[in-house]
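Q: What would this complex look like in 3D?
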Amino acid sequence: MGTGEPLPPTPVGNRPRDHFELVVRRFAPRLLAVARRILRDEAESQDAVQDALLSAHRSLDKLRGESQMSSWLFKITVNASLMRLRRIKRLAEEPIEALEPKFLADGHRQDPGSPWCENPEARFGVQQLCELMFEEMARLPEAYRNVLILRDVQGLTTEEAAELLSIRPGALKVRLHRARCALRELMQPHLAEDRSS
Amino acid sequence: MKCYELIAFVHRYLDGELSTSESSVFDQHLTVCPDCRAFLDSYQTTVQLETLAFAEPDAPVPEEVPETLVTAVLAATRGPARGPVGD
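A: Here is my prediction, written as structure tokens for the whole assembly.
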């Protein structure tokens, strides 16, 4: 998420909480854009951004610098939007263990399934493909969604994402791999060449 | 190399974190294992689709946020903060 111009100097104090209105006006447009992309409903999108900003107000003082604030606000807005999408679509959260690859005693995958189609965009169209991704991301546990949002979507480094989530870089790498495997598994029925797999 | 080893370390393989000899073992396994080739392809496609989902330019960033939203957020934050959340 780009940060654009830096926050204007505040006449009140140096902490984000002291100039929260400026934070809202500075970041809310981009947060609203991502919420709209996920939810495609104006009222739900505004509610998701409101949820995220209220959560932000309670935790802003923990953040260091505008870049960290931007990444963190984006993360909680995406999460708030995906949780609303999960409710609207009546989707159930999938335990991460159920989505991990399973193996036979000889080391081969238990159910490798069919390879994926070569051109997912052609099969579904970009908009429907994006909607599928949002719905399947919404089914992941939050801890796993978080690493995908920070690393794969926002492009933070392992160290930056680990600091934001208060976990060790090694733990973040493992969690990211499990999250990608889980999302891959959730997308398998949609994208397999043979859709029966 | 077994399939479970490739899948356990595929992220390190893609990030170039494996030694030359380890990567060579990966490459050799991929030449003989269609299931692992398919897994690798779908793993990479998953990451690409995450990017696509958030990058597709169909929702331009608005110039301003609706004033009703700003007002509602600021009204809700007046009063004592309730302390940090575990987010």
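A: To summarize the key features: DSSP finds eight helices and no strands in chain A. The CA atoms of residues 51 and 80 of chain A lie 7 Å apart.
Q: Very helpful, thank you.
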